[in-house]
Amino acid sequence: MVVMIYGAGSVGLGLASCLLKAGAGADLIDKDETVLSLREHGLNRTGIFGNFHADPSEFRSYSSLSSLANSQYDYILVCTKSFDSQVAAGDLADHKHLIGDDTKIVLCQNGWGNAEVFTRFLAPEQVYNARIITGFQKTNDYTVVVTVHADAIRVGNLSGFSSSCVERLCKSITAGGIPCEVTDEIGKYIWAKMLYNCALNPLGALLDVPYGDLSENESTRQIMDHIVREVFAVMTAAGYETHFQTPEDFLDIFYEKLVPDTADHRSSTLQDIKAGRRTEIDALNGAVVELAKKHGLNVPYNSVAFHLVKSIEAKRSSVRKDQRDL
Length: 326
Prior knowledge:
Blueprint (H helix, E strand, L loop, with lengths): L1 E5 L3 H12 L3 E5 L2 H10 L1 E5 L4 E3 L5 E3 L10 E6 L6 H9 L5 E9 L6 H5 L8 E5 L2 E7 L2 E7 L3 E4 L10 H9 L4 E3 L3 H22 L3 H6 L1 H20 L9 H15 L6 H7 L10 H10 L5 H26 L1
Parallel strand pairs: 1-2, 1-6, 2-5, 3-10, 6-7, 7-8, 11-12
Antiparallel strand pairs: 3-4, 8-11, 9-10
C-alpha cells in the first residue's frame, strides 16, 4: 500500500507515523523547509501512543506534486488546513495521473464544507472524510506529539458510497498506533465534531486556556451551551443529523467524557493564533453562521465567537505586514 500525505503539518505527520510504523509506503508533500528537515532528520512521533522514529530512507518527501513519479496511489490523505481546500483540490486535479480509478482521497481536516470543494474537481465516490478527535502538536518540522485522544478516527463517504474500500487504510493506521475505523455514517460523526469544535476552539483561543478550563468555569459553560444549541438547530434545519437526538444529549457526553478526555489540549485555533497563522474558524463557527443565513436562523453566540477570532486574525496579519515593511 502506497499513500500520499498531502500536508505534513501536525495531523499529516501523526498519520504518516502510523502508516510507516505499519509498513506502508508514504510520500509526504509540504513546503521546502519542511521537506528539507524530513529528509535530514526523518520523522519522530512522541506522546500518549508511544515513541516512533522513521529514518529518512523509509519514506519520501517532496515540495511539489510535479516532482513525483508517474505512479498512482492507493490513498491520498489531505491534511492541509480547511482554508487550503481549494488550492489542494486544484493541485490534485492538475496531477490526475497520480490518481487511479481506485484511488481514494481522504480529507483529514476540521470543519464542514471540505468535501463540497473536492467534489467540484473529483468524483464523489473517490472523496472520503476522516473525523479525527485526537490532539496532535508539531514541535518542529519533523516531530509530532500526540497529546490527547477521545475516540477512534472514523473514515467514510458523505455521498453514500460504500466505505469498505478504506478498510485497508484504517487497519494500517490502527496497526501504527492510533485506533481507526470505517463508518457509513461519517456525516453524523463530522457534525458531532462540529458541535465539539465550535464550542471549544474559539473560546480556548480567545481566552488562551486548555479545554478543561472552559468546562470548569460557569460563564464559559453557559456560552458553550448556547453555541452547541445553535449549531444543533442549524444542523437540523440544513437536513443533517448526528448520533445525538437533542443538544442536551450531546452536552451530557461533552462534559462527562469528551472534555475530560481532552482537558489538557489547547485548540488548533489557539496554536494557529500564537504562531501567527490563519485559523480554520471559517470552516467551524463561520460555516455555522453561513448555513444559518441560508435557513433564516439567528446564531448570535456562534457569530460573536467567529467575528472575535477573525478580528484577532486581522490584527495579527496587520502586525506581520508592518514587520515585513520595516
